[in-house]
Amino acid sequence: MKIKHVLILGMTGLFLTGQAQVLPYKNSKLPIADRVEDLIGRMTVEEKVGQLSKLLGWEMYEKSGNNVRASQKLKDVVKQQHIGLLWATLRADPWTQKTLTNGLSPQEAARATNAIQRFMVDSTRLGIPLLLSEEAPHGHMAIGATVFPTAIGQASTWNPTLIQTMASAIARETYAVGGKNGYGPVLDLARDPRWSRTEETYGEDPYLIAQMGQAMVKGFQGEKIGQTDKIISTLKHFVAYAVPEGGHNGGSVSIGERSLLQNFLPPFEAAVKAGAGSVMTAYNSIDGVPCSSNPWLLNEILRKQWGFNGFVVSDLLSISGLNGGHATAADAVDAAQQSLNAGLDVDLSGSGYNQNLLDAVKTGRVDQQTLDRAVARVLHQKFALGLFDQPYVDERVVDKKVATKEHIDIARRVAREALVLLKNEHNLLPLSKSLKRIAVIGPNADNMYNQLGDYTAPQPDEKVKTVLTGVRAAVSKDTKVEYVKGCAIRDTSASDIAAAVQAASKADVTILVLGGSSARDFKTSYQATGAANIESGASALSDMESGEGFDRASLDLLGNQLALLKALQATGKPVVLVTIMGRPLNLNWAAAHVPAIVNAWYPGQEGGMAIADVLFGDYNPAGRLPISIARSVGQLPVHYNHTKPKHHDYVEFDAKPLYAFGYGLSYTKFAYSDLEVTLAEQADDFECTVRLNVKNTGARDGEEVVQLYVVDEVSSVVTPVKQLKKFSRQAIKKGETRELLFHLSKEDLKLWGLDKKWKTEKGKFTLLVGAASDDIRLTDGFTLTKDYSL
């Protein structure tokens, strides 16, 4: 009888389990739309509002030895708020106070996310798993993950195919430990390098940014959302965040509608058309309307015109900013209703919506249909990701997917292709590996965190290859390499220029590594948004002069860096300057006096090896600048594609930048020839084919970045003096000639007309083909006989 009783209970359990499995929202065979509709119909208002709250994730686990479990805080907030998402659960840095000791290794990270999801599935009424969003702009911001060059370096490769490969590696690592949503790419158009976050952008040109952005989205997401080793991409920051007045991070933006439509929005449109699953609103306002409560941006442009069907998320605390810094909402409830009604679905913070949104719903300021629509967008992505069907990760395969040799090799390749040779007088570079004595000097020569950029987790010492490490690995065993720091980035009390001069005087060549730093430290205080608090004139100076919150009034090298450079140059020994930095800095003196300059931006964990590859000739550099390097802040903005008329010179110097957009040298030479332009006009479009030959006329194999610019000679509205429309990075062996083809259509030449419609106008277009925006080798043109509507 006892056995029979147990059997009956077991059968009852199976029956009940089977019954639960066939609930429509749990039935994986049903269309996602049906599953979403069924689940929303079962949810209370409180559960719906909770699905729109994304909280700080690093507080949601507890670690004790090798044991990782869901924290009491998670259990409390789930009970109180019914949350639907977490952000930066696996993040580690000084702001989060997570270190190599109390943070999570990749294996522990997988256990933590599994524990969190297990609690959600087993201990909540509806068993809705969380969507875990992670910072991932140049690698997953978690302990153990591969660190790639920051975005400004990625853009310097001018190689979208490589960047897609890199993004796939980032997605694989993030997915392996439980992240299903990566923050990136950043699609901000950077035209004021005083702004602290320039390093996070792809530069100053909308077309180049669009190409890089599409590559990141495709690498993150694959062919469709829900593939193994793929994650949802969140586009940042929508929109025009990178041109704040005075360079003040998060400040207001003064641009017109036409500039917004033609310059700032196209990269986002391209990434949305590539399938991006999420978009983040920017902190700033545009023409008096905060981006987090702008229905024209979020509903009209993003959803109606572009067909975006993912979810929109706020930047951290930006909803609260409506009744805070922006002062456009009377109180927190007003801010919540403004944002949701404008089309902002998810609150990154958990404090912007929550009770405020509940109050707005209960008082009728947000209707049920609007709430349900936002919830549906979030749930749709959860179902598409397969979270309901498989919320857990396989802890056994983490080591096979995170920081693999393949990913480390990709990091080195991206860093190499990103390096920009700015100057090489008398072919000083490449250096011989058999030099007797080399001095490696500078604050960034052997500082691993200074070469990684912002949004980077703590790293073990042996993981990051500095320039000193790379040089020692590259030269022969008979070469003596002497290292002297010389000075800090900012702190003038930490200088020993005399020792640096002594080392340089004895060396055959000096490799001097200067620039900036975005390395966060535990001494700096941080705002609730994660941006740094800046104390002008503070007595204790970190190296950090870039990174979120570190806006600049000048672009000069800080501290005693220029003094160190001048002292070393005065020794009479050749100096090779390597710049590691997050924004274009003032290189005027170096450009006039130093024979060789290589710019590396923030080159990531393999940066030192990549730099050595270039310095000693194992790799022929071909990186190109994605942003102009100004001579002075007085020139700003100095982007190459400013609107007509052409700029005239200043009293002090000419209006040209020191180094222009698209610029970069090689150890070989290339000749351009045989430009041929053909035009075929049809009823509703045209095809312009541009054909040319590029020959490597030097003594080394190399790569050339061929750039095609267009000038609209006469237009109904003012257009740029020139605009990049196509480019191609080509590997060409010495003596080889490569034929290149570019194709232009009406989409490439459109403008926002006086009638507020997109069109390509009839008339003459001049084509400029060359190696940089200011190095045009071939010129031709064509004439359209009619207007083309879009």
UniProtKB/TrEMBL annotation:
Molecular-function annotations in GO: beta-glucosidase activity
Record keywords: Glycosidase, Hydrolase
KW Metal-binding (keyword) present: no
Source superkingdom: Bacteria
Segments forming domain Fibronectin type III-like: 704-773
InterPro entries, alphabetized: Cellulose_Degrad_GH3, Fn3-like, GH, Glyco_hydro_3_AS, Glyco_hydro_3_C, Glyco_hydro_3_C_sf, Glyco_hydro_3_N, Glyco_hydro_3_N_sf
Stated family: Belongs to the glycosyl hydrolase 3 family.
Protein name (Swiss-Prot/TrEMBL): Beta-glucosidase
Organism annotation: Sphingobacterium deserti
Source species taxonomy: Bacteria, Pseudomonadati, Bacteroidota, Sphingobacteriia, Sphingobacteriales
